[in-house]
Each structure stands twice: as C-alpha cells, then as structure tokens.
Specification:
heterodimer, A: 164 residues, alpha+beta, four-stranded mixed sheet, two-stranded antiparallel sheet, 8 strands, 45% helix, B: 450 residues, mainly beta, Rossmann fold, Neuraminidase, six-stranded mixed sheet, four-stranded antiparallel sheet, 5 helices, globular
Amino acid sequence: MILSKILKNTFLVLIFGLVVSACATKKTTTPAKMDSQIQGDVYVGTDTVGELAKGVPDRVFFATNESILTTKSRDTLRKQAAWLRENTNVNVVIEGHADERGTREYNLALGERRANAAKDYLMTYGISADRISVISYGKERPVDPGSNPLSWSKNRRSVTVKAN
Amino acid sequence: MKTIKFLIIIFIFFLLSTSKSFSLIEVDITRGNLNPLPIAVSPLSQTNKSKKISQNKLNLEDLGLEIAKVVENNLKQSGLFNPLNKDAFLQKPDIAHLKPRFEDWSLIKAQALITGKVLIENDKLKVEFRLWDVLAAREMLALAFTTVPSNWRRVGHIITDKVYERLTGEKGYFDTRIIYVSEEGPKTQRVKKLAIMDQDGFNTKYLTLGNELVLTPRFNPTNQMVTYLSYFRNLPRVYLLDIETGIQEVVGDFPGMTFAPRFSPNGKKIIMSFAKDGNSDIYTMDIENRLVERITNHPSIDTSPSYSPDGKYITFNSDRSGYQQIYIMKNDGSNVKRISFGNGIYGTPVWSPRGDLIAFTKLHKGKFYIGVMRTDGKGERLLTENFYQEAPSWAPNGRVIIFYRETKTNKEGEGFSAKLWSIDLTGYNERLVETETDASDPSWSSLLSN
C-alpha cells in the first residue's frame, strides 16, 4: 500500500514536472525537468521525437556507451514493426547516433551497433532484413547542440526514417 | 587538384666544411621551453635587381625579410628558441652574412645567428644561409639550395629544419603539412571539408566542397596520398585521395561502413575498421593488388588501428573488456594484449614515429586528456586536460603532437568551436594552431624534403 502511495506521488510529481516544463521556456532547464526526462541515463522525454507514421515514434534512446534496448524502446520498435507490416511498400533506414563525449571513430562503431540493435528487434517482429538499411553518423549529427547530460541523452539515439 | 608542387630542387651542399666545428651551443629538447635559446635571424640579403624581380613576381616588398620571418615564427612556435627583435640588430644583412661582428650580436644577447642571401635569377630562387655560434665566434652550418620562387615559404621551413637539426640533434618538422577537416556552420549541421595547409597555417587549400561529410584524413607517410572517410551518396566508406591529381577512389568493396583508416609505414596498405551487423573489426587492404585481409575477429568494437613504425605490430582500440581500452597485437592479428590499465577509458592510440611511445585520448571523470604511454602500457603521462579533445597525431620527428579540442556550449547550445592545438612531448608549449575555419582531425605529414 505504501509502495502504491509512493508511486502515486511520484506520478504526480512527474505530471507536475511535465506541466512545468511545458510552460517553461527553453532557457530554464530545471533539475526537476531533467529528472523526469532521464531515467537511468536514458532519455524518456518527448522533445525531438518525431513520427515514422501517425502514433508511431521514430526514435529510441540509449544509455551512455550502451546499445541495449529499454522496455520503452522495445515498445516503440514494436509499434514501428506493426506499422511496417501494414505498409509493405515502405523500406526504412535506421540512423545510429552517439553523443559528443566519445572519440570520433569509436562513436562511429557505437552508432552502427545501436542502429543494428534496433534493426535486429524489428527483424524479430517479422520485418525482413532487406527492407532495413543502417547508417551510423557517430557523433556527427547531434539533434541537440547542448553540452549537458540532458542534451547528450537526446543525442544517443537511433532514428528510423523512410527510405523511399 | 594541383596543389603544391614538390619541385623543390634541392642542391644542398656545404659551402664550407662544418664537420669539424664543435659547438658550445646546444638545445636540450627534453626539458621543454624553460629556457628558450636567444637567436637572431638576420633578414636574408638581396641585390636591388633581384629585389625588383621578387616584388614583381611574388608581390613581396622584401623577400629576404619575409623568409626570415617564416624562420623566426617557426623557431618561436617550437618553444625552444627566442628570436630577438630585429630593431636591435646593428649589422647589415649582407655584411653579417659575410662575416658577422660577433661582439655586436652578443651585445644584444644572441647566442646563435642566422644569416643568408637570396637571389631570383632565370626563374630560379637561389638561397644560401649560415648558422653562427655567437659566443664561440664561429660558423656551425652553411647550406645553399635552389628552388622555384613560388616555394619561398618552404625555403624558410627548410632553413628552420636544418637549424633545428644542427642545434638539437633531432630532425626538424617544419617543412611539413597538416591535413585536417575544416568545419563550419551550427553544431547540429556542421559542414565539413578536407583542408590542407603548411605546418605554420599558411597556404590553406580545400580539397572537397563540403557536399558530403568527410572525416579523419591521414597522410601516407611515403607520398602525397591521403586516406579518409567520406559519406559520399550516404555510404560511409574509406577513400583514397591523390592530393596532386585530385583523383579519389573508394577503398575495397565492403558491404557496409568502413572507417578509421590509416596507412602502413611503408605506405602500401591501408588498415581500417569494417562494421557489419553491429560489429566492427580491423581489416587491411593492399593498395596495389587490392587484397583484403581480416586482422581481428571479435564480437566487440575493434577500431582506430595504428601500425608500429617497423610495421610488425598494430595498436588499436577495443571495448572487449567492456569499455574502450588500448591493445597491441602482431600485424597478423595474433598475440592480442591489452596495455591500458589506468583509471578511465582510452581511445585513439597512435604509435610514435620513433617507435617508443603510443599517444592516446583518455576520458576520466568527465575530462578528456591527451597522453602518451610506453608500448608496454607503462609510464603513462598525461600532457593536457580539457572538456573535450582527441585525435593526437605525431610530428614526423616524434617530438610534437597535434590534436583537436572542442569547447563546451552554453545553456542555449551556443558557443561551439573546434580548433587544432599542438603540444610538446614534454607537456610544455601548448599552442593554438591557427586555421581559417574551425578545424578537427589533424594529420601531420612526413618531411617533404630531406
């Protein structure tokens, strides 16, 4: 019971955080906002997230130096797979990215590893390998130019885009 | 692209025998710039007739003075010399070159003196210069050579190399070039081009237009070829570029990304990473017969390979232990051994041209370091610490390291910059290397002339 109470409170705090952040201007990145957007080093917010199709998020995020898919990432990729199964004429490119806190060459390899983690997951949900190509940009194409943990978390990503 | 011609025809001959001269001055390069040697660089003298020609041809008021300035700047940048102000010079350049009045030069505290003479005649630039030991009152070095007038800056670099070599006992690194990636535009949409310049930042030329992303250019140590990564047609692949002709071609036929290229010391092979299905391994390709050989086979990331100068070993970066660390193996991929064991993670190992050290990038507690360690991993020394820096590249004499450094952006994501820096192996003499644009991924060439 106590646990559910804590969870409820956390939930309220989270909602509050989101409301605050929604009202807040770009300049005021409060710690509360940041906490609500990063869990265990992985970005869980909605900023920068686009859509592969209606209701299908286009990207998943990673922890520093990792290519492991989180529960939320797997959920996103299952949505992508479902949409791709419905739209068999669409091929995709998965772009793998790293944050700026690593050497260029290692980050190219890491971006490739991340993109392939997403590709493998789509394949286990029935999407044929020849419909998915991957490209790594390493740290070359950050989506957020900031030099702080929140910006870095948004940049550690793989993005699924339509190829044709 | 016709860039710089290496038509420097050098007839280096000794005007006077210098082999017997035994000098009092000597520059100790192992201690950094604590006590730079006071040196006077007299403008190279020139006849009025020759002066007129150089004014017309090169648009330089005083060619002899300009060459002296190139030498002075080189000496100053090395951190080992303190070139003295010319206003204090008492003796005229032409007379000083014949026979310096050593009392005059020691009066202004010069310990060494460079004098010389230039002459443009029949489309040739003739140069001679002498290095004098002021305190011992004798000549240490005298050389003459001929080149084309447009090579006049290189004349200054060659003079510096000879002076540096005579005074330190080590080969110089001044008649060299740097290839790098020129960067412009906002951080999220950087436009990158290959660029090349003289070691002192002059004669910048752009080798690509910026239509596609290019990264990590590296010189062939034996000729004017460059290998680099290009995203041409959105296919990241290793390319080979001849900077004389501008001809470029993709290296090998790989079904995926190739990256992190570097030449073997004899210039005949390219070693690089090939990434497939989330795994990066190291391969080589023979440039002549195109044979591809797999060197590592491990489910971890293996990248940033660099040969030892004798070509027998390879150092590389791998995360097979869980994090990025530096490894060494034989050139066939056998005997893999981890050598980095300090705190933090390690990347970009680059073998020194002298063979005894490996330069690296280290990340520890949110700071980036450029450092060196012995090839057995012992004797780690961190040369410089900053928010972000990486990609060390050795000067051909193994005394200086060039790398790039990026600045932290502010809360709005503004204020980003990337610049080249150099530092002495001793950890002294850290200097910004001026470039026309922002710059990263520097690679130092071999000496253009010897």
